[in-house]
Each structure stands twice: as C-alpha cells, then as structure tokens.
Amino acid sequence: MRFFLGDDNGQLKSIRCTKLPETDWKVDVSMLDDGGRRGKTKGIQRLAILGDKVFLARRDGSAALFAVEAEDSARVVHQWEETRFKLGEKYVGLGLITDVRMISCTNAGRLRLTQANVDAEGGAATSQTTFIPNRLCEWMLSEDSQSFAYGGDEVEVSVWDTSRALDPSRRLLPSSAVGIKRKKGKTSELFDGEIWRAQNVANDFLNLRQPVHNTSLTYLSHTSGGVRPSHHILAGTRIGSVRRYDTRVARKPVADWQHMGRVGGVQTVQRGNVEHEAFIADHGGNLIALDLRTGRVLYAYSGLAGAISSMAPTLSSLSPPLLASVSLDRFFRLHSTYDPRNALADGSNEKGEVLAKIWMKSAASCVAWDGKVPAPRDVLDEQDEHENDIWADLQEVDEENGTSTSVSNSTSKGSDGEEGKLNTTNKKKKMR
Prior knowledge:
Elements: E1 2-7, E2 12-19, E3 25-33, E4 44-50, E5 53-58, E6 62-70, E7 73-81, E8 91-96, E9 101-106, E10 110-116, E11 125-131, E12 136-141, E13 147-152, E14 155-161, H1 162-165, E15 194-197, E16 214-223, E17 230-237, E18 242-246, E19 255-257, E20 266-271, E21 277-282, E22 287-291, E23 297-301, E24 308-313, E25 322-327, E26 331-336, H2 340-346, E27 354-359, E28 364-369, H3 376-392, E29 395-397, E30 404-406, H4 418-431
Antiparallel strand pairs: 1-2, 1-28, 2-3, 4-5, 5-6, 6-7, 8-9, 9-10, 10-11, 12-13, 13-14, 14-15, 16-17, 17-18, 18-19, 20-21, 21-22, 22-23, 24-25, 25-26, 26-27, 29-30
C-alpha cells in the first residue's frame, strides 16, 4: 500500500509499505517533488488525494496539482499562487471534486474553486473565489462533494451546501458579520448557502459561557439527498473535549466526551477504519481509539515521542485495517488497529502496536492514503522476491571438488520464469 506525505520543507514523498513473511514490514520512501530551493517557505500544509492526482497547498500561499505517473515520479498538472495571501494566513482544508476540479480554503475564510485545463498549454485554468466566516481551524469536504463543514476559534461547527456556497449569485457575508461575535438572538440566522450550524454547550457550574474553539473535525457519515440531509460530524476542541453532532437531531452535540485531549487539547480527530470507531490525538503524543457508541477508550498507542500532526486510516476491507501517522518527532509510523466489536466481546483492552516506522529528515505535516487496496497477488510476489533474495545470498557447495558457487549464478533462465522457480526449489532440497 502507498501513502503520500508532505513535510515542512515542501517535499512531497511516496511511502510504500509492504507486508513481508511473518510479521515484518518493508518501508520504501521515494521523492516525488523536492519543493525547490525556498525551503520552509514552501512547507506543505494540506494534502488531498483522488485516484492518481495529488492536490497540495504550501505555506507561501501556492498550490499545485500533481499527477503520479509511476512509483517514484510525479508531473505538475497545474499550479498557482494566492495573490492576496496575507502574513499569518494558512490553508485549513483541501478537496478534490474531480481529478481537475479543486477546492481550497484558508483560515481567513477564502474559499476558492479551481478548474484545471489539462489540454491547454501551460496548464491554463479558471477559478472563482468567495468568502465564508474566518478564524477557521479546520475545513473538510464531504465524500460526495455536495457539502463541506468547518469549525474554528469562536466559530461553531457549520455545514454548507457546496454548489450554493460557490454560486456567484450568493449573497456574500457583510464585513460586520465576519469574525465578530453576533448578538444574542441572531445566532440561529443562517448565512446564504449554510445548511446547519451548531450551538454552544451549556454554561459551566459557575454559569459562565464556555469558549468555542474547534481545532479539528471529520465526517462520520452523511446523506445529501432527500428533504432533510443528514450529517454526522465529530469535532475536537482546545479544552480536550470530543463532540459528536447529528444535524437532524439538534444543534447541540448529541454526545460530549471530555478530557480526551489530555495535553494541550485535541490536535486532530480522524474517522476510524470501521463503524463506531475514531482516532483522537492531542498535543502531547497521546493517540487513542474511541468507541463512538459509549465514549469508552478502546485502546491506546504507546511509545510516541512527538505530537501527531496527521493520520490516514485505510479501508475496513483491507485485512487487517491499518493506520498511518506522522508526528513532530519526524517519524512516519504504521499502526495496527482492532475491531471495536471484538474488543467489547472479549472484555479486554488491546494496545495498539507500531508495525513499522521510519525517520524523516524533516518533520512531516500531513499524510494521506492513496485509497488503493493492494492485490493479494502483489503481496505474494513481494514475499517470493524477498525469499529469493535470501537464497541468492547463500553459497552452494560442490560435493565433488569442495568449491562453492553462488546460488543465483547457477539459476537457469526460463522464458516464463517457471524453470528458475524449479531450480530454486531443488537447491533448497540440496542445502538440507
């Protein structure tokens, strides 16, 4: 399986993880783009994957769409730079509607739709820009691209209709409504294109208003069709709470699990490999798997020295489902996962394991899975190749004259490869 990784030096890398015999894993890293000479000014902040297309955004306001042509090569399809990108502004979310239609969003509420023209010379493209509330920390496009959700500092979790938000006829937000707390009684008024907005939780035991600071969110499930579309969203906050929202039930969270982010609040939340599972990471290197039915911690991961900056789970159809992560200690890690249904049946808490890890020269900021499930035949071919490499390093002893020759040198070459396999089998028997 393959993951794509972006780091603080603007480098785009491909990481292939291959399962070897028994419990070993092989990790290969390939450089797809070095980011040029500008170094940290072009650090990658966000990644989005669709098929063989990789969409990334950089710290200097530029963005690029790559087409991955081979295992270790990528071609730039289109790239551009935000001319109004201000100091302190950053990208908080990316999305690919098709392989040539891209959406980007910054923390200042700058929402941009870009249409790349791959047939034109020079990568000419068309784009349109609109604005949504600012002070955002996270923006995410739904899987069907019909809606998007965001949250931020004093910005409640909100769901918008994508087509209406990008409609040129939409009434833009007035300057007085952007970034300013609205008066009581007007918080239920939705903007043009907004479908639903969350409401703050109840006051604390001192009857004081609780601050709103959503640091991360993810879609659990959604249905865009019908009269009442449904969106299930999980959000993490700066105070360490994890809240689940159901847009059909209420504006307040249907579940509020506190003290999930023990150090510095919740850094990132990610939907799990299977149903009723989510992964939560804080700013202190703590990574846990949460049961979304009960709010109970299913299992945790140990030995993580740095805070997790990004996670990428694989599909539940992959056996076994896995989780990739990158952290501030410059490690890429591949983790094992467990089915929450089995954990409840056994009545015991398993501990997540680190199956493989590799150290990077620069800290990675984001990671994404390419979404492709490796075929069982490819896995077997990798195992056979690994086994043949072991036999190639051994020496064959000639019983008559006592000389030794390399096994690989005496292997016959067959047109279809079958003869070579038979010779390798005979050598194994002779070595015994």
